# Entry
Amino acid sequence: MQTTAVLSTRLTARQRRLRATAKRLVIELGYLEHCLAEGLQDANVQTAAGIDTAIYCLNEHLASSQP
# Structure
């Protein structure tokens, strides 16, 4: 049987990983916006722009499916 302290520690570790991932994503998207605003177009920026569009579409879908 797990104690509350152990479960709480696991959730905290998971939350830290999620927070770090979200932080990295925000940094990458900010860089993408900067590159697009400056007109920089290379293969990596074009791929990232597609990913940005996919994330936007996913967010719209998730927002519309909320009860």
Q: What stands out?
A: Residues 35 and 45 are 7 Å apart (CA to CA).
